[in-house]
Amino acid sequence: MPEDWTERYRPASLSEVVGNDRAIGTMRRWAESWKKGAPKKKALVLKGEPGTGKTSAALALANDFGWDVIEMNASDHRNADSIRRVAGLGAVSETFSNAGEFLSTSEGKRKLIVLDEADNLFGREDHGGAKAISQTIKETNQPVILIVNDYYALTRKASAIKTLAVGVKFARHRDGTVLEVLRGICEAEGLTVDAGLLAAIVKNASGDLRGAINDLQMLVEGRKTVDVEGGDALGKRNQGVELDAALEAMYGARTAREARDATNSLDKTPDELIMWIEESIPSEFSNRADRAAAFDALSRSDVYLRRTRRLQHYGLWAYAKEMMTSGVALARSGPRRRSPPRYGFPSYLIMMSRSKSVRSSRAALCRKLSPVLHSSSREIAVSVLPYLSAMARNDSELLAHLGAEAEFDEGDVAYLLGTDPASDAVADTMDVIRRIRSGEIRREAAAEAGSDARRGTRLSDF
Question: DSSP secondary-structure letter at 316?
C-alpha cells in the first residue's frame, strides 16, 4: 500500500505550515511562554474546518520545541476515565519521553498532550468526557492542545474551556495556496499533471488542503502523466459546502418558493435532508414559539415520508419537501440572526454509527436464540432480550444452560451481562459453557457451579 501523501508531506516545522500566519504566530508565542514555566492558560484550542492544517501545526510545534507528544483522539476515548487515563500521563511536572528518557521541566523539556476531535462528544457513553478535558487542563503542568471542528459543540458541554484555553482560528486555505502545495508535490514526485486538472482539484477541495492532496494522489496513482481527461473520477468534495449554502439560503428565504428551490441542487433525498434540517432548527430559531412551529412543520413532513415508504408512492415526496423547507423556513415570526449558525452533522447519524457494533451484536444474539426459544429474532429483541439480560445477571445457571444450547460466544455472554468481553465474569461463564458442551460438567452440576460462583468461587475451578 502506497504511503499516504498527507503524511509524507506533513510539515515538520511551523515555518513549513502554509497559510494561517496569524494562527501560527499565536501558537509560537504560546509555546515560547512555557520556557518560563506553566503559563496562565495552559491549553490551546485549534478550531476550524477539516483540512485546514490544525493537526499538522500542533505536531510541527512539538517538533520545533523538542516536545514529545501524547496524542489521542477524543472520539475514540470519549468518557471521563479514558481521557484521564491517557491525557493524565502527561499531567505531571516531571515526565518521560516515548523512549523512556527522563524529561526535566526545569531544563525546558515538555510533553505535549494533543486531543484531536475534542468536540466529538455525544451521548451517554461520553458522560463526563468534556468535564474531564477541563479538569485535565486545570491540573496539568504540561502543554495541552485541543483540536476541534466545532468550537461551539465543545464549549456547550464544557464552558470552562473558554477561560482555560487560548482559542486559535484556522481558516480555509486560499486556492492559490492549495495550488502551490499541489505543484510542489508534483515536482517532488516527478509528475506531469495538466494545469486544468490541478485547477479542478483545487476548486473541488474548497480550501481543504488535505482533501486536495488525497484527490491528487488518487488520480495519479500508478501514473506519471495525467491529462485533464484523467480527472473524470474526481468526486465532488464540496457537497458539504453546498449543503451549508443551501440551508443558509433556505432559512433566509422570504417566500415559500425561494425556500423550496434553495435545496433543489442538493444530491440528497428528502429522507436524508430532513435529518440535516432537524439538526439545524434549534440553532436557527431562538424564539420558542417559532421553534415549535418549525418542528410542527417538520413533523408533518415526516408523516408524508412515512406514507411514501408505506405506499411506495414517491409523488408524496413533493409534499414532504414542501413542509420541511418552506414550512420550516417560514415558521420564523421575527428577523433572522445577523450571524447564521454553522450547520452540524446530524446527531442521529453519529449515534447510529457509534452503536453499529452493539446493534450487530444484539442481532447476532437474537438469531442464535430464535430456534432455542421458538420465536422470531424481532420478537426476541423487543420482548425477550431486556428481561433475559436481567435474569442472566442474577442466574448464572440459566446463562450457562442457555449458552450451551444456543452456542454463545464471548460477545453474546458479554452483551447479556452488560460487561466487557474480556472480563472475568465472561471468561468464567464461557468456561462452564464449554464444559457443559463437552460433557465434562453434567448439566445437573451446572446449577451447583453457578451457585458457588455467586458465593465467590471462580467457575473455572470446576
Answer: G
pLDDT tens, residue by residue, 15-51: 999 989 999 999 999 999 998 888 889 899 999 888 8
The verdict on 365 and 336 lying in the same domain is no
In DSSP notation, 102-171 reads EE-GGGT--EEEEEETTT---SGGGTTHHHHHHHHHHH-SS-EEEEES-HHHHHHH-TTHHHHEEEEE-P
What count of other Cβ atoms lies within 10 Å of the Cβ of residue 159?
Answer: 12
Shared-domain flag, residues 223 and 336 = no
Confidence band of 129 (pLDDT split at 50, 70, 90)? low
Pairing assessment for the beta strands 225-226 and 102-103 based on DSSP bridges: unpaired
Average pLDDT of the segment spanning 379-390:
88
Instruction: Tell whether the model's pLDDT for residue 348 goes beyond 60.
Output: yes
29 shares a domain with 129: yes
Structural domains of the chain, count: 4
Nearest-5° Cα angle at 350, 308 to 278: 50
Phi, psi (degrees; rounded to nearest 5) at 229: -70, -20
**344 with 425, same domain?**
no
Quick check: helix, strand or coil at residue 45?
A: strand
Q: What is the pLDDT of residues 151-190, one digit of tens each?
A: 877 777 777 888 889 999 999 899 999 999 999 999 998 9
What whole-number percentage of the chain has pLDDT above 90? Answer: 25
Structural domain range at position 434: 356-461
**HSE value, Cβ hemisphere, 13 Å, CA-based, for 137:** 27
Residues β-bridged to residue 46: 147, 168
Does 149 lie in the same domain as 75?
A: yes
For residues 245 and 194, membership in a common domain is answered with no
- CA distance linking residue 78 with residue 84, whole number of Å: 10
